[in-house]
Write a structure and sequence with these properties.
With about 350 residues, the chain is mainly beta. It is built from one helix and 17 strands.
């Protein structure tokens, strides 16, 4: 990964010269959507109505040398109404030389959802009562990436590498952001590298993997790293998929801490007809904890708790709108034994 990082920095440095560009075109996209949620975390008795409020502004153009560029940023109000511009990216297409991109809260390379099963969205990522410890993604930090050109490798293989130089740097940064002093700690600081590879060996079959590695922090007991791999296959009206992931959090001491998360996800999706789709997912996330060494013992023991999530989704297209139902049932939620939670979300959405 160190060699990959050095190569990426050389490519970015060599690109840091001026190019004249023609005027670009600006467009706005988003989705008009609303939801009604029943149940969820804690006592599973909460209810709420939400209305989608994200707008994506995009611009694109062509340089005098034949390169292309695209830019996007989102207006993304948070709960409570505080509006921010975030999820920004500037991507330079260099033809046969590949692509260089600069990302802020964008450019995710993690393949934790690569298996792609969900009539509305992939599994519990669409809506869940707990946060699954998937691991790292370079999109969580301001980052720069290089992507190999399309069709350079056989089997429709894509290779993308990303580098985040400062894990303490915030998101939503303005032009010429300097970044904070990188105060190293167990959970932040240092830098990170991320690589993702995907391919299509045969028609209908997709496979891929990623690896994230943080370094140069003060996580003396365990550095932050994670990885995932997946396979998915589509045949006729059916789709099936499987994901596997591992995550080791940054630690200064292992005693009494969760040292490893192991994630499994699989599911099936069926398009009944052009209007109706249904899907079923089952996901498991197992947390391993190093129990603190007892006063009378020479070594510690490990305990494991597995959270299990079942998801059913139904999507129905009616008059240009997509009506949806998303049902989640979680046992051992938040990696707590015997903590069960349920949530149902009804949605309506119109893209524009």
């Amino acid at each position: 990964m160190k060699n990959i990082t050095k190569t990426l920095l050389v490519l970015v440095s060599s690109f840091a010269i001026s190019f004249a560009a023609t005027a670009g075109e600006l467009s706005v996209s988003g989705a008009a959507k609303a939801s009604y949620k029943i149940g969820g975390a804690t006592d599973s008795n909460d209810k709420g109505i939400g209305v989608g409020n994200e707008l994506n502004f995009t611009a694109s153009g062509e340089m005098d040398n034949g390169f292309t560029w695209s830019y996007s940023t989102e207006l993304d109000p948070a709960d409570g109404g505080a509006a921010t511009n975030d999820d920004s990216q500037l991507v330079i297409g260099m033809g046969d030389m590949g692509t260089i991109g600069f990302f802020d809260s964008e450019g995710g390379l993690s393949q934790e959802l690569g298996y792609g099963i969900g009539a509305l969205g992939v599994g519990t990522d669409y809506g869940n009562t707990m946060t699954v410890a998937y691991g790292g993604d370079v999109s969580n930090y301001p980052n720069v990436q290089y992507h190999l050109p399309a069709d350079l490798l056989p089997l429709s293989t894509t290779v993308k590498v990303g580098y985040a130089p400062n894990l303490n740097d915030g998101q939503g940064n303005s032009f010429k952001n300097a970044g904070p002093v990188n105060a190293l700690s167990a959970t932040a600081g240092g830098d990170a590298q991320h690589i993702a590879v995907t391919m299509t060996p045969i028609d209908g079959l997709g496979i891929g993997a990623d690896y994230f590695d943080a370094s140069n922090s003060h996580a003396t007991a365990q550095e932050f790293e994670s990885g995932n791999y997946y396979a998915k296959y589509a045949m006729g009206n059916f789709k099936v998929g499987y994901n596997k992931g591992y995550h080791a959090p940054a630690l200064v001491a292992k005693n009494g801490a969760k040292t490893m998360y192991e994630n499994d996800a699989y599911g099936i999706e069926f398009a009944v007809n052009d209007a109706l789709s249904i899907s079923y997912n089952e996901e498991k996330s197992e947390a391993t904890t190093n129990v603190a060494i007892a006063a009378t013992k020479a070594s510690n023991t490990k305990t494991k708790v597995e959270s299990e999530m079942e998801v059913i989704q139904v999507a129905y297209i009616f008059g240009g709108a997509t009506l949806g139902a998303h049902i989640v049932d979680v046992s051992n939620a938040d990696y707590v034994t015997a903590k069960d939670e349920k949530m149902t979300v009804f949605t309506i959405a119109m893209d524009f």
